[in-house]
Amino acid sequence: MADSRIASNGHIDLAPRRIHVVGDDGVGVFLASELSTYVHTSFVGVDETATASAARAGLETSQIDVTDLRSFAFATFSDGDTVIVASSVDARNFLLAQTIKMTTGVDEIIVRLANPHNASAFEEIDVETVCIASMLTTEVLDRLTS
User: What pLDDT score was predicted for residue 1?
Assistant: First the structure.
C-alpha cells in the first residue's frame, strides 16, 4: 500500500500541519525555506535582519521581541502546530522554548542545540533537541569512513 503522504513529485506531504521556525540567522531562514516545500511554514524572526532575509526568500514572516511576552501573541502559534526554535544561541533558545511552551498550545517544540553539554537543561523543560555539533560530527565521520 502506497504512503498517502508522498505526493506525485516524491515530496512528503505533511499537511495540514503548520511549522513555525523561530530564528535569528541564515540557518533558521534556510530551514524554513526548505521545509516550506513540504508543509506550510512560517519564519518568526527575533531580529529585523533575519526577518527581512526570510521575507526576501518568499517566506511568510513575523517578528517577536524576546523581552516582551506580549509580542508572542502576534506569532500565530496554534494547537497542533510544531515550533522549531533555531536561533544561534542556546541560552536564547532555552528562553524562547520555555516561553512558547508556557504561552501557547503548540503540540511540539524542537530546539536547535549548539552545545551538547546544554542538553540536560532542555530535557528539564520537556522539549526535543537537535544537536548541530553532534550531527556535523556524525556526517564528517561518515564521509571520512566511506
Answer: 42
